[in-house]
Amino acid sequence: MLSALLAASIGLSGHEFHLPARPGVDSVHVAGTFNRWSATADPMKLDAQGTRWSLRVPLRPGRHLYKFVLNGREWITDPANAELETDESGNRNSVLFVVEPEHLRPRVGDGRIDPDQLEFRPERPWLSQDRGRLVVRLQTRHGDIQAAAVVTAQGRTPMEPIGQDGFVARWEAAITPAPGLRFELTDGAGTQLFGSGGLGSRTEFPVPDPGPAAADPPVWPAGKVLYQIFPDRFFNADFSTDRADTVPWEAAPSFGNRFGGDLRGIQTQADYLQKLGIDVLYLNPIFASPSNHRYDTTDYFRIDPVLGGDADLASLTRDLERRGIRTLLDGVFNHTATDHFAFQSLVKDGESSRY
């Protein structure tokens, strides 16, 4: 649903960005998906009173993410916009919907279906496998249709709405895998097919062969309570393993500093964890690594000595197992540290490296 702020600023000529002036800020730019996140492409102007930065940016109808860039280095979200989204890198961005006036008018039940917002592609994330079922997702215009269904040679499966924003709606259904599919869209008294040829097409979208069926996921996690711990920041019980750059526990946290939390510290709090009623302890990476977060792993076969090493992990997991608590490790096996032996082989031997 559009916020009042966003709805009031919708128009075909563009969107007016505003930011209150603040001490020490000499320049403000707006960066977003509409200018490839350029920190210099769209400078804002300070009004004559020195109270507000403003800029009108021509934007096509759609969904846009943006931030303000202060003094060329500090990126902030829009304080006047409550619509926020976290991207794949963990960054929070402001969300803006630019919608043509016609798009705001209710259309459900009028028998017309907007072909411009219909979208499906026979690939991820529109198609995915889940325990022998094929999960199908469809996008339509927001507030445009009453119902949708997936049609295959095996039959017709109604789709469920799974979310919407100010621009589009999303639908989903789980079906028996089939080599092809099309959609049935219902609005008012009419029903239309949506196939690979567009709205009104009966031609099926091809469904790629998923290959060998993946093993069913384990059933034991269902209904369980997981408790996640970032080991460096939980409890420091073994000061003998602290690095020289370990900071006092009361110090202000930063991205790269270390507080010395260790596996023995987690074990000393096992009674506390048990009283919480948890079933699974989920640990962020604990393999040997040069960083405090350990997502850049040096050795997957060795627990980081800074955390207490292999012996302390064995002691912790046995203690938790006696309490009925499982231990789950974050493996991150798809990327390494630059000092990982395979990465170093590439640095040294280039294309002749076995890796």
Q: What percentage of residues falls in helices of 4 or more residues?
A: 10-25%
Give the topology string: H per helix, E per strand. HEEEEEEEEHEEEEEEEEEEEHHEEEHEH
DSSP strand count? 23
Specify the overall morphology.
globular
Largest sheet: 6 strands, antiparallel
Parts with pLDDT < 50 across at least 5 consecutive residues:
1-12
End-to-end separation: 50 Å
- Number of DSSP helical runs: 6
Q: What is the residue-mean pLDDT, rounded to a whole number?
A: 90
Radius of gyration: 27 Å
| Coarse structural class | mainly beta
Strand-residue fraction?
25-35%
Describe the structure.
The protein is mainly β. It has six helices and 23 strands. Strands 11, 12, 15, 16, 17 and 18 form a six-stranded antiparallel β-sheet that branches. Strands 2, 5, 6, 7 and 8 form a five-stranded antiparallel β-sheet that branches. The radius of gyration is 27 Å and the shape is globular.
Gist of the model:
The chain is mostly beta strands.
List keywords for this structure.
355 residues, mainly beta, six-stranded antiparallel beta sheet, five-stranded antiparallel beta sheet, 6 helices, 32% strand
SSE topology:
Layout: H1 4-8, E1 15-20, E2 28-32, E3 45-46, E4 52-57, E5 62-70, E6 74-76, E7 84-86, E8 92-98, H2 101-104, E9 127-130, E10 133-141, E11 147-152, E12 155-158, E13 160-164, E14 168-175, E15 180-187, E16 190-195, E17 198-199, E18 205-206, E19 226-229, H3 263-268, H4 270-276, E20 280-283, E21 287-288, E22 299-303, H5 309-322, E23 326-329, H6 341-349
Parallel strand pairs: 19-20, 20-23
Antiparallel strand pairs: 1-4, 2-5, 3-4, 5-6, 5-8, 7-8, 9-10, 10-14, 11-12, 11-15, 13-14, 15-16, 15-18, 16-17, 21-22
